[in-house]
Amino acid sequence: MSMKWTSVLLLIHLSCYFSSGSCGKVLVWPTEYSHWLNMKTILDELVQRGHEVTVLASSASILVDPNKTSAIKFEVYPTSLTKDDFESIFVTLINRWLYDLPKYTFLSYFSQAQEIFWEFTDYIRNLCKDVVLNKTLMTKLQESRFDIVLADALCPCGELLAELLKIPFVYSLRFSPGYAFEKYGGGLLLPPSYVPVVMSELSDQMTFMERIKNMIYVLYFDFWLQAVDMKKWDQFYSEVLGRPTSLLETMGKAEMWLIRTYWDFTFPHPFLPNFDFVGGLHCKPAKPLLKEMEDFVQSSGENGVVVFSLGSMVSSLTEERTNVIASALAQVPQKVIWRFDGKKPHTLGPNTRLYKWIPQNDLLGHPKTKAFITHGGTNDIYEAIYHGVPMVGIPLFADQLDNIAHMKAKGAAVKVDWITMSSTDLSGALKTVIDNPIYKENVMKLSRIHHNQPVKPLDRAVFWIEFVMRHKGARHLRVAAHDLTWFQYHSLDVIGFLLACVVTVIFIITKCCLFCFRKYAKPGKKGKRD
Ligand SMILES: *[C@@H]1O[C@H](CO)[C@@H](O)[C@H](O)[C@H]1NC(C)=O
Ligand SMILES: *[C@@H]1O[C@H](CO)[C@@H](O)[C@H](O)[C@H]1NC(C)=O
């Protein structure tokens, strides 16, 4: 290492000790794909501030690029699957969600979605076993003396690791199916009368019938559908920890929940002191485009450009759908930049260019960009909000339908159904969001709200992680609800006791009255006779 680098590193470490508390060692239990992209922003910032970040990644993980040098360390543990296996598991699950699920009715839709999610989390549990049952690895982690575990709550295991290593943990989470983890792990209170449950596609302004729908969803999610196969997870956790426990109980020990939304995106609802809403923390100002792309963007003239991406998870669409989309795009006066990795559709217009990868953030921040056609991933919607670009949503799976419903309710997006849409539907939707100024106005309103926060979301996320390291937890933020049983939580024991008191008092009073009545009524009668 050169002198220069040594002194730079030394400087970082010094700044760490003197300005922001103390440097810490962070162990990360990640989730792949877009979740990782979001979390990586936090990790990069932690590294910048001098903390040591180690990510636990399986040998099948696709987030580790061995060719890229990174300040983030990767602890790669062996697993029986290969990278190809992992990707094919994922692609199969996504395709089932994309092509099979829309054919089902309401109830079977969710039970099928549950099955897909269970398969996915079964895979996560196996990865978890590869870590916690590997004595060599666990000893190594023990000896590394980490200060904190940062975990994506969607894929459990981080909380178990923290428990085994006896260190505090912080969650990053967009949502869990039916809000099960937030509600029953975190203790978050979400009244069904005005908080639409995730995946219901409702807004917070609900009619009586919509409130009935929301209640049915809530009951269905609470009592029927399970986010993960709880029995298996509970048993696994009890075995590993050597005492009867459950996944949700262990999750309840989280010091802090960093939820990846904010009030520009989600509808207002009550929250607890150990929840913070850090949506859009990955957003940043646009950088200049490469010359070739900039020239293409400039060639659009007054009409501007449309940016189109269905995200990183979906690379192939059916040929029929691709052609419908391409011919819709050919009808608009704008130039279109389409992130697409597949066979070139024959209906592709001269105004559309295909790219395997696009600098999405830089494009959305470009003054010529008029609209964004998106699948509605949370990260993507936040980039559109950040740069104030109206959206056409083609939601595909998971939370995307709900995300687009939020943007629609806030007047910043138009939704088209990806299975049934025709070319005219898509080009019509695009014309609407571009020609009707209300969409731009609404998304700019959201953008201003997003930019006008007392502390930036990334700084808040990092603050809480450093806070938990500095104070070895954040117990003072934890509601005592976690220590109560369900009947204590709902005060059923107290209500029962008070009812018993009332009944006893009524009983005693009645008895007394009867007694008095008998005692004094008789002489009274006699008296009357006299
Ligand atoms: C990494 O580099 C090696 C050798 O240069 C190459 O064969 C391999 O494909 C690269 N891997 C990735 C993921 O780019
Ligand atoms: C346990 O982990 C270590 C370190 O990652 C690895 O070298 C070893 O092969 C693992 N053992 C098993 C049985 O997977």
Overall description:
GO terms for molecular function: glucuronosyltransferase activity. Pfam families: UDPGT (PF00201). There is one protein chain. The protein is α/β, with parallel strands linked by helices. It has three domains: 3-281 and 456-483, Glycogen Phosphorylase B (Rossmann fold, 3-Layer(aba) Sandwich), CATH 3.40.50; 291-451, Glycogen Phosphorylase B (Rossmann fold, 3-Layer(aba) Sandwich), CATH 3.40.50.2000; 492-522. Helix content is 50%, strand content 11%. Helix 14 links the parallel strand 11 (369-374) and strand 12. Helix 3 (83-100) packs antiparallel against helix 4 (106-132), helix 12 crosses helix 16 and helix 16 (423-435) crosses helix 17 (437-451). Bound molecules: 2-acetamido-2-deoxy-beta-D-glucopyranose (NAG) (2 copies). One 2-acetamido-2-deoxy-beta-D-glucopyranose binds at residues 77-78, 134, 136-137. One 2-acetamido-2-deoxy-beta-D-glucopyranose (NAG) is lined by residues 65, 67.
Write down the overall geometry.
globular
Overall tally of domains: 3
Q: Assign the CATH architecture of the largest domain.
A: 3-Layer(aba) Sandwich
Here the CATH topology of the largest domain equals Rossmann fold
How large is the share of residues in beta strands? 5-15%
Query: How many distinct helices?
Result: 20
Helix content: 40-55%
Cα-based radius of gyration, to the nearest Å: 28 Å
Unreliable spans: none
Number of strands: 13
